[in-house]
Write a structure and sequence with these properties.
By secondary structure, the chain is an alpha+beta fold. The chain has 12 helices and 17 strands.
Length: 387
């Protein structure tokens, strides 16, 4: 239930830009989007919902699923299918054995297509089953115009996404610290288990890691059909941004466009307004329960990026929380939400969740709650003493 709620809220945030861009940026890519990385707020977009091939940005999804389903020390034997996949800069050979952690790192840094197939086979047995897993995860994240047919982004008419969906996937992936570690690595030596003497020195295809201040990732992509693609993330101070570039004319232009977008964002986003979830705890009364009340709190921090022409004093927090709920409640159940408003308009929302269980049954306090419910607002302070 929480995942569904989160996906809905996130989709609303990432599909909404409070302010249009002040000026048209000089960009050569046909589709771009720039978002703030913790909330998904759109800072700039152009053709962000046009369906296009994502090329090797696809491997972000392959990597995050590999991290979620595999153990770092898992031994992965390279199949003939993986070894014969075109463009294998890792030079994988059939029957080679490599650990999951080494293969994930090598695959992402040099964008190895055969490595992506090997990860898919290790997780799901075959590429078709893994592609279904990819599509299930994309829907869970909130992607609306994405369909994967393979784990590497090689051309396929039924393999597509949008800049907006790629931003959602990027944002999800950055929540994983192992993923962050991989995509922020500039160069690495990858070690084989069998043959044990094989090592390959690799360098990240994301050139901005070496040239752009605060760059944290993410993933390059290129095919003739997709053009130059890039998911780029960078952090300066408390502000982290994600830029997605799709269908740039060439591999160099994608980097230039990403820099332009990120520079625009860091110039425009001034601060992140936040409500710390640890500082918000409320009580909700319970009818027909073994307790008369339970503690509830925010599932996550409530954050919102402010732009240059926006002011903190225009933000207000509203708690949409019932005073009384029915028992049988489990810790983690959603019972309400906190809404952040800018000039009266909702710009962010986080669910309130129960912090403890309460079963159906009888208690004196809960009985008093039921009897007092018609005038609960008047009796609230007294009930809090009992409950």
């Amino acid at each position: 239930m929480y995942r569904i709620f989160t996906a809905i809220i996130f989709s609303l945030l990432i599909c909404t830009s409070v302010h249009a861009a002040e000026k048209d940026l000089k960009l050569e890519a046909d589709s771009v989007i720039l978002i703030e990385a913790t909330t998904g707020r759109v800072i700039y977009e152009k053709n962000a919902d046009v369906v296009r091939p994502p090329a090797s940005m696809t491997k972000m999804m392959t990597c995050i699923l590999g991290l979620e389903y595999l153990v770092p020390d898992d031994r992965i034997r390279i199949s003939q299918n993986a070894a014969y996949t075109e463009d294998s800069d890792l030079q994988l050979q059939e029957n080679d054995v490599i650990s999951a952690s080494e293969l994930l790192r090598g695959m992402m840094l040099v964008s190895d297509n055969g490595g992506a197939v090997a990860i898919a086979e290790a997780v799901s047995g075959n590429v078709a089953s893994f592609s279904k897993l990819m599509n299930d995860k994309a829907r869970e994240i909130g992607c609306e115009h994405t369909h994967f047919e393979n784990p590497n982004g090689l051309p396929n008419d039924n393999h597509y996404s949008t800049a907006r969906d790629m931003a959602k996937i990027s944002m999800y992936c950055l929540e994983n610290w192992d993923f962050r570690d991989i995509v922020s690595t500039q160069r690495e030596t990858i070690h084989w288990l069998e043959p044990s003497n094989v090592t390959v020195r690799v360098e990240n295809t994301n050139k901005l890691l070496a040239t752009y201040k605060g760059m944290t990732g993410l993933k390059t992509g290129w095919t003739r059909a997709a053009g130059g693609c890039l998911a780029a993330s960078a952090k300066r101070g408390d502000i982290e941004l994600i830029a997605i570039v799709m269908h740039a004319p060439d591999t160099d232009t994608r980097f230039k466009d990403a820099e332009t977008l990120l520079n625009y964002g860091f110039d425009r986003v001034t601060s992140i307004y936040g409500v710390d979830k640890e500082q918000v705890e409320k009580k909700v009364f319970v009818r027909n329960g073994t307790k008369g009340s339970i503690a509830v709190g925010l599932q996550d921090d409530l954050n919102y990026p402010l732009l240059r022409d926006e002011y903190r004093q225009n933000l207000t927090v509203e708690y949409d929380l019932p005073k009384v709920i029915d028992a049988d409640v489990k810790a983690g159940d959603i019972v309400g939400k906190a809404k952040l408003k800018y000039n009266g308009r909702v710009v962010a929302s986080v669910p309130f969740v129960a912090k403890e269980d309460v079963e159906s049954g009888f208690s004196f306090a809960s009985k008093i709650v039921s009897l007092s419910e018609p005038f609960i607002s008047v009796a609230e302070n007294f009930l809090l003493l009992l409950a």
